[in-house]
Amino acid sequence: MYQKTVGIVLHVLKYNDSSNIVHVYTRDRGRVAFLVKASRSRKAGVRPTLFQPLSMVELEADFRPKANLHRVKEAKAWMPYASLPFHPYKSSIAMFLSEFLYRALREEEPDEYLFAYLQHSICWLDECGDSFSNFHIVFLLRLSRFLGLYPNLSRYTEGCYFDMLNACFTPSVPESGAFLKPDEAARVQMLLRMNYETMHLFSMSRAERNRCLTIINDYYRLHIPDFPVLKSLEVLKELFD
After folding, report:
1. Angle, to 10 degrees, between the axis of helix 135-146 and the axis of helix 182-191?
2. What is the pTM of this model?
3. Closest among 184, 170, 174 to 215, alpha carbons compared
């Protein structure tokens, strides 16, 4: 049965010489895998160039019960971007976040609040002029709320450790062995106060920002089974002096 949906592109995988598998986080169906023809003809109902990292697309697809792949009949840009695909730093962030979301969003059930968060965040990045070097850090920290991984801040006091496994602050060295010492624990507590409007007030060097990314990646790896070290992470670490 052909139906329309809108969603955010997470990952594209070559299926054969004529088709790709495109993973999309949709507003009304959650994460869905689509089979998309790879024709580059201008007359084709689906153009592969639509499916860039974090592109927002509108799809008409044949949704069949219990099918793992749904064939796409037509596709078009749902919310065209002004700068995201063309700005080298923004496109690098998009590549990293699409890979991150592809690994982190595994539930097929829809979540309207999560989708709204993703949509708002990506549009904010597309529309902002400058001062977005901390965007991906804020994005990932706030994403943890929707995945049930947001740290418990209620027990924080100066000199605490941060227990990475139990997602909380503690006055003594955690037995889990996965923890941050008080100086970095204090920085985590500070970073969790950032939002898109205030993040430009938090100045960080490239080394400090890269350390934050490493910690965030390690944190997700502790809480999501088989979460890998992301290939695009090293590319992102070279940006934003």
Report:
1. 80
2. 0.92
3. 184
What phi, psi does 4 have (nearest 5°)? -100, 150
Token duo for residue 234: 């090293």
pLDDT in tens, 146-200: 999 999 988 899 999 999 999 999 999 999 899 999 999 998 888 888 999 999 8
Strands 161-163 and 168-170: antiparallel
**What is d(CA 139, CA 84) in angstroms, rounded to the nearest whole number?**
16
Residue range 120-142, pLDDT digits in tens: 999 999 999 888 989 999 999 99
Largest Cα–Cα distance of the chain, in whole Å? 65
Torsion angles phi and psi, residue 230, rounded to 5: -80, 140
DSSP string, the chain: -EEEEEEEEEEEEE-SSSEEEEEEEETTTEEEEEEEE----TT-SS-GGG--TT-EEEEEEE--TT-SSEEEEEEEESS--SSTTTSHHHHHHHHHHHHHHHHH----S--HHHHHHHHHHHHHHHH--S--TTHHHHHHHHHHHHTT---B-TT--TT-EEETTTTEEESS--TTS-EE-HHHHHHHHHHTT--TTTGGGS---HHHHHHHHHHHHHHHHHHSTTPPPPHHHHHHHTS--
